[in-house]
Amino acid sequence: MPFKNTSDWLDYDKNHLWHPYTSMSDPLPCYPVESAQGVRIKLADGRELIDGMSSWWAAIHGYNHPLLNAALEQQIQSMSHIMFGGLTHLPAVTLAKKLVDLTAEPLQHVFLADSGSVAVEVAIKIAIQYWYAQGQKNKQKLLTVRNGYHGDTLGCMSVCDHVNGMHSLFQGMLPEQFFAPQPECFADGTTNIDVLEKQLFQHQSEIAAVIIEPIVQGAGGMHIYCPQYLQQLRLLCDKYGVLLILDEIATGFARTGTMFAYEHAGIVPDILCVGKALTGGYMTLAATITSTEVVQGISADGSGVLMHGPTFMANPLACQVANASIDLLLASPWKHRIEEIEAQLKAELSSCQQYPMVKDVRVKGAIGVVELHENVDMETMQADFVAQGVWIRPFNKLVYIMPHYIIDKNDLSKLTSSIQHILKPLTLKAN
């Protein structure tokens, strides 16, 4: 039976649908969406919100883009899905070529996964299998840094920060990995990577790979660090014989001002994970891209079979819209757009630094972060932002925006001024 009205289906949602990081017994309010166009979300009651989140950083071209719509409409006429075991198709091959051409030269081999978490799971399996094939079967551990986030599946959770992250209650059942301090960069050009090096030195016989989010740590705290750390990390991985996995699920496809964040450091990973913006936010798709050396290493024992194969791997619809999204990005003045967004975020968010409740303000590319000293009341602050006509979803101590690349200056100013408007009275109350 169809629902009678918006209130009717919202009630059903509240009682039956689990939303991300929420409780079914005490769910947070959800705002009913009727449609989305450009940078605006239209609610069922007619209100429009300027979206500051680009649907968790994925919808870089905005919503309902005619070229991306056309790519899906064209593909669905011939094939919406086909299994990738024993079969292949042009959208997947075309996408693989685009990714190989777009990334650094050593990265030549593409595994098309369902989601960012799966891409990281595959990267972990590749790293462990690489050393297994080399006869080093004890190299099954990962080394990572604090305040990182790599996904919510089991393998991914094991390299997320259990102390400051979201997955502490699963710690007892997860593989135990090695953790170094969050990357820090000092005024004299040095970093705190010495602690990580000590762990590599002590445990190199156990560590298969280091996994890290380059330049910007995402959902683990939106921490921004210097390219020198990555440069040193690449050298250390080579020195101690471990692979380097870069998780660019959040940072890939120009979010930080270069096409991929590793370009800031001038390094190349052994394994690269991309997702989110890959399809322009239209469909779930991700990729794990590796060097030829890694592929050949996996084959060293005569096998070379990677034991992973999602049902919807290389879905033709997702591949086709990803092809269109990449073409659209490359045809746009993306670098100039990101530079303009970055400059405006720096200029307009800097005033938040004067508020006593604000610990730090930081910007990198199309990422603007205001970190508070205390956790926010997300339900109340979310409602306040909606009342301001914007969609900004804070979490923990962070109020941040990662807008669509197509956003204009007026709409971006509306987002930044809304942050100022909401944080200022909270500062007065705190005093």
Description:
- This protein is an alpha/beta fold and 431 residues long.
- The protein has two domains: 31-64 and 334-430, Alpha-Beta Complex (Aspartate Aminotransferase, domain 1), CATH 3.90.1150; 67-331, Type I PLP-dependent aspartate aminotransferase-like (Major domain) (Aspartate Aminotransferase, domain 2), CATH 3.40.640.10.
- It is 37% helix and 16% strand.
- The chain has helices at residues 6-16, 54-57, 66-78, 90-102, 116-133, 154-158, 194-203, 227-240, 292-298, 316-331, 334-349, 378-387, 409-430, and strands spanning 33-37, 40-43, 48-51, 107-113, 141-145, 178-180, 207-212, 243-248, 271-274, 286-291, 358-363, 368-372, 390-391, 398-401.
- The strands form three sheets. The chain has a seven-stranded mixed beta sheet with strand order 4-10-9-8-7-5-6, with helices on both faces.
- Strand 7 (207-212), helix 8 (227-240) and strand 8 form a beta-alpha-beta unit.
- Helix 4 runs parallel beside helix 10, helix 5 crosses helix 9 (292-298) and helix 11 (334-349) packs parallel to helix 13 (409-430).
- The longest helix has 22 residues, at 409-430.
- The model has no long low-confidence stretch (mean pLDDT 95).
